[in-house]
# Entry
Amino acid sequence: MKKQLISTLVIGALVFSTQAAATQSVELEQTAAAESSNNEELIGLTSGIVLGAVVGGPVGAIIGAFTGTLVGKSVGDDDAIKTQQAMLDEKEQQLVALNQQNQSLVELSDQYEQAQQQLTSLKMAQEQKLTELALGLNVQFKTGSSTIEPHFQSQLNDIAYAMSLSPELTLDLTGYADRRGDGDYNQALSEQRVAEVKSYLVAQGVDEARLHKQAFGDSSPLMAEQSFENDFFDRRVTLKLQNQEGSLAAISAK
# Structure
């Protein structure tokens, strides 16, 4: 638009100068004084227009160059801002991802700590249960019977539970009978009592390979003197919990 305006001014000035020259030629023939006056005015006007056009051109170019520089700088600054904003967005996303990872690590650490506490509690419960078993399991059989009474079934349940907590444990089962009756019968009865105890533990989930049994009939009484009370305690199956370090507990099932 500015270039068109400058061109128009220059062309107009040239046309106007040509017309002024033609008019000057006619007026010289009419009056010298009037011609001189008119020529000075026309020349001054034409010169002013041409000079304005000539001056306007470089100024317009300077303004255009300055304006172009400003526009280019503005565009460059806008691109730089966009690039910086993109980098900021990327960094924010990285920070969010790192924060999420850190949060996950904190949660995993908390879960590990809770698992450690639960494991410690289970170990303490296991040790307490083994101590209780070592101190006082007392299962008894009736005369001539290999049936496990309900009260002693619950105690055998405790043994099965303790073994489930400690896979390294094994159990030795040894059966006995009192001295009343035939020796062969008492031997068979002690073997049957051991078999019943073993079968019950297997039914509670104990691996049969972890159970070792033997029977001695009436050959190993607890007391030298035979009596009704002593016979009561001789009707038993001894259970010994074992680990790699040896016997943990000796329990009599009578």
Summary: The CA atoms of residues 164 and 206 lie 7 Å apart.
